[in-house]
Amino acid sequence: MKFSQMQYQRPDMNYVTTHLKEVKQRVENASSGQELVDIIKDYKNNFDKDIQTMSSLAHVRYTINTKDEFYDKENEFWDENLPIIETLSIDVSRAIYTSKFRKELIDAFGEFYIKLLECELVLDDRAVPFMQKENELITKYSKIIANSKIKFRGKTYTYSQMTPLLQNTDREFRKEAFEARNKFFEDHEEEFDQIYDEMVHLRHDMAKALGYDNYMSLRYKLLKRVDYNHEDVAKYREKILKVFSPLAINLRKKQAEKLGIEDFKFYDRALDFKDGNSTPDGDYNFIVSNAQKMYRELSKETGEFFDFMVENELMDLLAKEGKRAGGYCTSFDKYKAPFIFSNFNGTNGDIDVITHEAGHAFQNYMSQDMILPDFIWPTYESCEIHSMSMEFLTWPWMNLFFGKNEDKFKYSALKGAISFLPYGVTVDHFQQFVYENPDATPQQRKEKYRELELMYQSDLDYDNEFLSKGTYWYCQPHIFHDPFYYIDYTLAQVCAFQYLIKYLNDKDKTLQDYITLCKAGGSASFFKLLEIGKLENPMTTDVLEKIAPQLETLLDEISERIK
């Protein structure tokens, strides 16, 4: 079914409440393990998928146009009622978890299903008012960004539309564009501080109400991190600091030399080549049609997937006024359909989207026949392996988009991915500080962010008073929307690097390992999925030390091919 034909209907909350209470009773009254298994399958694959699909449809249509009055109201409805639905669903999960038919549950759905239930059970109805207010604050932040109006050289841009300007070959132009974007955040400094301060206290109070010392402990459970804790993450961050921070600094030194810039600043980072970065050789239609050719040639599975996406209008990719910033992939599981949302802006980032978000969508497409919808999407760090790896698995087709500049694209992509790791762990480290010190003032948070970003990127020079006081994190939506969902990108990036190195040596085998991982969906924990995908664990092995020199060598080889 095409996206435009998918019917949205706001659920009747009286029916939802009654139905979930009835399901809970049926679970509690099940007379056999098989009856319980059948009840769960029916509940999850019908009611649960319907609710998820209606919520996703409302979310997507609202983010496509935050000025749409109908979906603005629907967004408010879901902000208020999704926490209620979630807590009623958790009552059902609690009844399942405490059932005397544990053995039959494990036989039908596996041990991991029990672990997922344990993670769910940290919430109860005490969390509802906190979650409702949290949703309201997230929407408030998103609206400010989506409705941004940034004036630059006589024109007005949204935040998303500013990105190409920051890659201009004229240094003064770049700096001026950078300053214009920064001014937008500076003008809203007090508002962002207030929203975030309220969020932090709200989340901390919710954690305390649910019996946790702080929000970080609760959030790790909500993120279903069953293999590792924040102490393991801290040790992993130290590895990035030791191995990848020096490598990223060295790459920026080389970049400065290539550009002929002695006083290298932050606004120079986005430009890799004196004559300009690679940009796609065509517009939206050019990109989508070449992506279709690429995915058909990559594999039978990816070809069928992308044809499905195009035929059913399951992508909204162009930047426009009122559209939420950024990109994401979601799904309408009732229709077994993923959906890609983005803001094309004419840069090489458009190709990152058509590969990164398509990696998410491909995994969802391959996992739609799971026995329960709980297993369709894995945890975030596993999700990001599919997306970041697809960026590299599509490299042999980059000439379709960039022609003679394909190596410029590959260089920027690989250099950017390496340089991202120190920034990624900065964001995570900052959030640990924030939620371990919920009463820190906005000023103290900024000072800590500044301290941390200089620890992981000692060469950082904004040449801007506002950013130099520790405010760059305002533009990182995950900090507001999805606390602690950022270390996931770095873990997945290390896994994607492994696939890249293996792919250059054995394309067919690597691609099969990747597809096998996608088919596994969320049926196992992160560490187990690494085994399924034949990947070394970034937390428990020396894989970072192994791959860093290989990546540097590969980058040098690509650089030598660029005329």
Walkthrough of the structure:
With 563 residues, the protein is mainly alpha-helical. The protein is 65% helix and 4% strand. It has 22 helices and five strands. The protein has helices at 13-29, 33-64, 69-97, 102-109, 111-120, 128-146, 171-187, 189-209, 215-222, 230-259, 284-298, 300-311, 349-366, 380-393, 398-402, 406-436, 442-456, 477-481, 487-505, 507-520, 526-532, 543-561; strands spanning 150-152, 155-157, 315-318, 328-332, 337-344. The strands form two sheets. Strands 3-5-4 form a three-stranded mixed β-sheet, with helices on both faces. A two-stranded antiparallel sheet has the order 1-2. Strand 1 (150-152) and strand 2 form a beta hairpin. The longest helix is centred in the first third of the chain and has 32 residues, at 33-64. The protein is globular and about 75 Å long. The termini are far apart. The mean pLDDT is 96.
